[in-house]
Amino acid sequence: MRSIFHAPALLAGRRMLAVPFWALMALAVGPAAAHVTLEYQVANAGSYYKANFKVGHGCGQSPTRQISVIIPAGVQGAKPMPKAGWTIEIQRETLAKPYDDHGRQVTEDVARISWTAKTPADYLPNTHYDEFALQARLPSQAGLLYWSVSQVCEKGRIDWNEIPPENQTGPDLKAPAALLELMPTAGATHQH
User: 59, CA 20 to 30 Å: which among 37, 50, 100, 127?
Assistant: First the structure.
């Protein structure tokens, strides 16, 4: 499994967790900006989603030279957005359970996307902010979806991959994975 996906057992329990989640987000605006986070942290389950990863600092004072995103299990057809001055590497893996995409059987899918600065002049300085984006179809089940992100700097590395225990918030995590809350939908969506 490429990542952990938490789906609440009962919808009522999920609604009870929504208030602390939003309260936590409101209280953690300052500290959250220091982590790699998603621009939009709520989306409809089963929808197409633009994951925009916000990078607000380097590793200490060292500039960022690479960002790698592990695509969570159940996320389909991830496509990176090109970035001037950066190369893109896409790693694929064979799926345990193939899926159908517009009448075509998909047996392997994107497992990791990496953006790497072409030259030291293209590195993201610690004093600057930038975003790295991809598009993909989200799993159809509502719940919490965690995206592990590796930030490789000229000196050092931060793996944003910590996941709180199920049904708990993680304010004490030092390197939290980017969190996306998937909301239930009334019907199937099909938008590109």
Answer: 50
Helices (H), the chain: 11-27, 29-32
**DSSP 8-class letter at 17:** H
Question: Can you name the residues that pair with 41 across neighbouring β-strands?
Answer: none
Distance CA 146, CA 191 (A): 23
Cα(69)–Cα(72) distance, integer angstroms: 9
Domain borders along the chain are 5-28+47-97+105-182
- Bridge partners (DSSP) listed for residue 94: 108
- Give the start-end residues of each E strand in the chain: 5-6, 37-38, 42-44, 48-55, 64-70, 76-80, 86-101, 104-117, 130-137, 143-147, 149-153, 157-160, 178-183
For 82-90, the CB contacts below 8 A with 24+ separation are: 83/115, 83/132, 85/117, 85/118, 85/119, 85/121, 85/122, 86/115, 86/116, 86/117, 86/118, 86/122, 87/115, 87/116, 87/118, 88/113, 88/114, 88/115, 89/113, 89/114, 89/116
Mean pLDDT in consecutive groups of 10 residues from the start of the chain, 192 residues = 40 34 36 73 96 95 97 96 98 93 92 98 96 97 96 97 78 89 75 52
Type of residue numbered 100: D
CATH T-level fold of 5-28+47-97+105-182: Immunoglobulin-like (2.60.40)
